[in-house]
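Could you please consider the sequence and fold appended to this message?
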Amino acid sequence: LGRNLDDAEKLTLKQLVELLKSLENMVKEVENMIMSKIPRPAIELSKIPGIGPITAVTIYAEFGDTSRFPDSKAARAYAGLAPKTKQSGDSESHFGMIKGNKRLRRAFYLAARVARGLEPFNEFYERLIAKGKSVRQATCALAGKLACIAYHVLNDGVYKGVTKKSFRLPKGKGVDVKDFDVGDALDSLSP
């Protein structure tokens, strides 16, 4: 805080830190209880960077039995993340998205908004932006890629990609976030 704390302030701060640790433990306990109720395939889906437990359960519920799709392209189309194709004679053009399952499309789009800043998907996203694609187009393309990955995870029963999820720190002017260890903070308050 930039100044020495008196005994009352130290005691208050120590109690607040202990309360924070207690609340964190309660949250972990509730999260573990919720995770124990989630089906195994949805847990595998939540290992994909950008897809959290709620989105994973949504994807699992909306996709249903993936054996009805011949390949990942069909699953992507079912999710509404495949481009419309217009053909006339020898010409063919792609524009917009086909209609599909709107809840599934939304789940993948929101997951793509998170995943575009995470490894390994940020390189794919940045490459599309560098090619001149708009943010929305690049995000939709990433959502389609996530749909294909989710199809394979549900078919194989395991996610084989990068599983490390990074924690995004707040960014902005004057924000200086450092790793904070509650135990060290408590130790520093001890006389």
